[in-house]
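pasting for the record
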Amino acid sequence: AVHASPQPLEQIKQSESQLSGRVGMIEMDLASGRTQTAWRADERFPMMSTFKVVLCGAVLARVDAGDEQLERKIHYRQQDLVDYSPVSEKHLADGMTVGELCAAAITMSDNSAANLLLATVGGPAGSTAFLRQIGDNVTRLDRWETELNEALPGDARDTTTPASMAAT
């Protein structure tokens, strides 16, 4: 069995103090599924751009089901672009494939790529429905980029817990 040292928890507590904020984390043994270390694992945190991982999971599930194709080209207009779209802003003339949009959303955190993909899964409600379907009853996406980054204290919109993200 692998046992984590208490050092990561001390580092997290120190980070919280330095940041004057909350930090949540969970470390799991992937072989056993057991939690090794956790801090605030069941507290809600704003997802911010981490939702893009779940979103691309939903897109890939649609590909596996035959409801989507990674090679399908999506065309969009200037008015579809939102703040921080370093990849998608360069492809207004030619569009991008679903696979390229996933890559841009994950590797470059491209917000417009995420919104274009979000539209293919039924928007924020469709993303949350996908999560419920795969057994995540905690994580929720309520808004599109860039509004979901508002992250007001006590607001459950667009949040998850470290434990839910690890299990999902």
